[in-house]
Specification:
The protein has 16 helices and 22 strands. It has helices spanning about 5-10, 55-60, 90-100, 115-125, 145-150, 170-180, 195, 200-210, 225-230, 285-300, 305-315, 345-355, 375-385, 400-410, 425-435, 450-460; strands at about 5, 15-20, 25, 30, 40, 65-70, 80-85, 105-110, 135, 160-165, 185, 220-225, 245, 255-265, 265-270, 275-280, 325, 335, 360-365, 395-400, 420, 440-445. The two termini are about 50 Å apart. About 50% of the residues are buried. One of its GO terms (biological process) is cell division. Involved in cell wall formation. Catalyzes the final step in the synthesis of UDP-N-acetylmuramoyl-pentapeptide, the precursor of murein.
Length: about 475
């Protein structure tokens, strides 16, 4: 974590220090009084319904060494060491940028509509074979979260792997200029955030903003199966010189997987151009293997051998609720993919379920896909139309938009094998009564649908 004096931090954010000793040591940064640690700098974030300045005195009482204080919020609490700034959030971002400049750390930035967290986990596991690595935790990948992740870095960190999320234009541009990555990765362009960006082309342009902060002669690895990225790349702001690696499933990519085998709880594969080593990941699905190509590209760029990359990939610990394979107390198998959802990721999960063998029946639970904009009904209808009794035995959907999935799927199933629910508890009850110990159940939905509640009930219940 950042360790600097009160006076040094004031200079880093171009603020004015009041009520404190310039030599006092500050250790770490926090925006939350519930988790504040002794010695932290408290950052009072202002939201639509709250103002962190109201909790600055509480933060100090709990051990914070000082607080940032926005000038338009009046005087800071008497006796609380404070750094006066024009904008508390901008000061947090500037502090992170200054701290990053003071460290010799080499950073990989990752963005994409789907797969960026899993890819981050893969890349971090690969690089950790050889380096001291810091990576994004949880969903700290936005204009508040990314600065906090940088400020959590130990000064001995050699490489960092940071997610960059966004909802609109110029957000990733801000993040990449704070982080100044040496390597950049775009996993894929989907439909998430369509309501903010208008089209897949708009999403691609927003994701390509990551290149505006990429260091000269760095590396850019991206999904070569996405023609939008190829088409837009010549027209975006980027370094005058950079290395480019295209990865994907098709033959035209620099890196592509071969010999894919899904076995048990993981997937094995080789990489084009070399039969050895055989790589393995503790994840299911061809889409995860494609994302592993990004880890191969970044690993090679930072000097790891393929054997070291293979060791890192096999040891990775994926973040939960992303094709997380669970076994219920009854023996039923559940694929928990409830962290998020989009048309592309839903199709990938359905393809995985379709290809798995060795189970009694294949049951599908789908929730609404959110943030798709004005075409959300069409996307849900199209997903429903891909489902059929040829590959799946039962489909249960939850949420107002998912009714369109159920309606589109119903003609391709026997009567009663497709059901829509407006009540999540009712869905969970019906599912628990229908599932058998040798079945496999895919549960997929956007974060806001909280379908992990269905997962937990299913795996904890005796069928």
């Amino acid at each position: 974590m950042i360790i600097r004096t009160f006076g040094e931090i004031a200079r880093m954010v171009a603020g004015k220090a009041v009520h404190g000793e310039g030599s006092a040591v500050i250790r770490g940064v926090s925006k939350d009084t519930r988790t504040i640690q002794a010695g932290n700098l408290y950052v009072p974030i202002i939201g639509e319904r709250f103002d962190g300045h109201e909790y600055a005195k509480e933060a100090y009482a709990k051990g914070a060494a000082a607080t940032l204080w926005q000038r338009d919020r009046g005087e800071p609490p008497e006796g609380v060491p404070a750094i006066l700034v024009d904008d508390a959030l901008a000061a947090l971002q500037q502090l992170a940028s200054q701290y990053r400049e003071q460290l010799p750390v080499r950073i990989t930035g990752i963005t994409g509509s789907n797969g960026k967290t899993t890819t981050k986990d893969m890349i971090a596991a690969v690089l950790a074979v050889k380096y001291n690595v810091h990576k994004t935790e949880g969903n700290l990948n936005g204009d508040i979260g990314l600065p906090l992740m940088i400020l959590q870095m130990d000064e001995r960190t050699e490489l960092a792997v940071l997610e960059m999320g966004m909802r609109g234009f110029h957000e990733i541009e801000l993040l990449t200029h704070i982080a100044k990555p040496e390597a950049a990765v775009i996993t894929m362009i989907g439909e998430a955030h369509m309501e903010y960006l208008g089209s897949r082309e708009g999403i691609a342009k927003a994701k390509l903003e990551i290149l505006s902060g990429l260091k000269q002669d760095g590396v850019f690895a991206y999904l070569g199966d996405e023609p939008l990225l190829d088409r837009l790349l010549p027209h975006v702001r980027k370094p005058a010189s950079m290395n480019v690696v295209r990865f994907g499933a098709s033959a035209g990519n620099d890196l592509r997987p071969t010999g894919i085998e899904i076995d048990g709880d993981g997937t094995r594969f080789t990489v084009n151009g070399a039969e050895e080593p055989v790589f393995s990941i503790p994840l299911l699905g061809k889409h995860n293997v494609v994302n592993a190509m990004a880890a191969v590209a970044i690993g090679r760029y930072f000097g790891l051998t393929d054997a070291e990359i293979a060791a890192g990939l096999s040891s990775m610990k994926p973040t939960g609720m992303r094709i997380e394979r669970l076994t219920g107390v009854s023996g039923v198998t559940v694929l928990n993919d409830a962290y998020n959802s989009s048309p592309a990721s839903t199709l990938a999960s359905l393809e995985l379920l379709r290809d798995l063998t060795g189970f009694g029946r294949k049951l599908v639970v789908l929730g609404d896909m959110l943030e798709l904009g004005e075409h959300d009904v069409r996307y849900h209808t199209e997903i429903g139309a891909t489902l059929s009794s040829e590959h799946f035995d039962c489909v249960l959907t939850y949420g107002p938009l998912s009714k369109h999935m159920a309606d589109a799927a119903a003609p391709f199933f026997p009567e009663g094998k497709v059901r829509w629910f407006g009540d999540k508890d009712q869905l969970a009850t019906v599912l628990a009564g229908y599932a058998k110990p040798d079945d496999i159940v895919l549960v997929k939905g956007s974060r806001g649908m909280r379908l992990e509640e269905v997962v937990h009930r299913l795996i904890e219940q005796q069928l």
